[in-house]
Design goal:
The complex is a heterodimer of chains A (about 190) and B (about 170). With about 190 residues, chain A is an alpha+beta fold. Chain A is built from 5 helices and 6 strands.
Chain lengths: ~190, ~170
């Protein structure tokens, strides 16, 4: 069973197009690997030693939605603890004071009695955690850990902001050195 | 004591007279607003000799959901803007509950709680120890295997056992 998992991981590594799996790389990967589920970590390890440099993110926004505010606050504590242990800088945590409430007012009875109605509602609480100055591999690892421990009844949306160079068609012809501008790169989960 | 907004009729005159005789007790006038709670939902019929038991969940009225009462199924399909797989989730919930009630004959003593974490479904609840442990282990494995194959995703069952049904009774009405 463990051997089969190891083989699956090696197959994953071989599938990666950017870096050619040298024997030395595979050996290093084999020794490092403890859990076969860390395939994304292996990919980013491959990335850093291969031809492409690791991507740098200016900010990482984790937007969490849930029905229960207390559960969300305890999850926020968990994320803070994880970030403290992994040396990830959390710059901002904010939650709007009010939830988004959706209400339905429906007739109580199947036939007539329009004066008697019944009301249902759902409440969605939001919370955003902002992380600054992380590399691609750090972001992948941290997000994987934090997302695997997301409690039931909550969703997370991740927005990654990276600084990119201005595209060639926007650089004025006279200017020789163009200033770099901020471009939003969205990746939602 | 505010006597304004007081409709003068025989009944009220009588009350005032009683007041004059008895010592001052302001209990007979109410100045609070009407409570707009639904008082007719989640109501169980009471008995004369208080012989009907209620579990904790049954004793809490629907307006206490999210306060002292939690939900029976935990998933993200009811959140703002996340309604894609709501019908499938509802269907799966109904199916799981029917399956559990039918497979575990009279064993579940609490509500069947369904939690969804990414691809995993966790079915939880309280079970009474009226059946031998061996049979219970068989039921666990059988349910997990069948549900995983039917719903095409990993299903885990986390049960806690209780001596008998009487241990979950919270209130008698």
């Amino acid at each position: 069973m463990a051997v089969r998992m190891l083989l699956n991981v090696f197959k994953e590594v071989c599938k990666v197009p950017t870096c050619a799996p040298h024997a030395s790389n595979l050996l290093r990967v084999g020794r490092q690997m403890a859990c076969p589920l860390q395939s994304s970590r292996l990919y980013s390890y491959c990335q850093s030693t291969g031809s492409e440099p690791d991507k740098l993110y200016k900010t990482l926004e984790l937007e969490v939605k849930g029905h229960d505010r207390i559960v969300m606050r305890s999850y926020q504590q968990f994320v803070q603890m994880a970030a403290r242990e992994l040396d990830v800088k959390i710059s901002k945590i904010w939650e709007p004071p009010k939830a988004v409430i959706k209400r339905w007012t429906l007739l109580k009875s199947v036939h007539i009695y329009a004066k008697h109605k019944v009301q249902y509602e759902t409440r969605t609480h939001y919370q955003t955690i902002e992380i600054k100055h992380v590399t691609g591999s750090t972001a992948d690892t941290f997000l994987e850990y934090v997302q695997r421990n997301l409690p039931e009844g909550m969703t997370m949306k991740v927005t990654r902001h990276a600084i990119e160079t201005l595209p060639a068609h926007l650089i004025p012809p006279a200017a020789s050195s163009s200033p770099e501008s901020d471009v939003k790169g969205q990746a939602s989960t | 004591m505010a006597l304004s907004g007081f409709r003068m009729n025989l009944r009220n005159v009588v009350k005032v007279r009683n007041l004059l005789i008895l010592p001052l007790s302001p209990k007979w006038i109410s100045t609070t607003s009407v409570s707009q709670k639904n008082i007719r939902s989640g109501v169980y019929k009471t008995t004369n000799n208080r012989s009907r038991p209620l579990t904790y969940e049954q004793a809490q009225k629907p307006h206490l959901i999210g306060v002292t009462k939690a939900w029976n199924s935990w998933n993200a399909s009811n959140l703002d803007g996340e309604h894609k797989c709501l019908p499938e989730t509802i269907w799966e919930d109904v199916f799981i509950r029917k399956f559990m009630t039918g497979t575990w004959h009279n064993l579940f003593v609490s509500e069947i709680i369904i939690k969804r974490r990414q691809n995993l479904i966790v079915v939880a609840g309280l079970v009474s120890r009226s059946v031998a442990a061996r049979k219970m282990y068989f039921l666990l494995g059988y349910t997990e295997e069948l549900l995983s194959n039917l719903l095409k995703r990993p299903v885990k069952i986390e049960i806690q056992t209780v001596n008998s049904k009487k241990d979950v009774f919270f209130k008698w009405i």
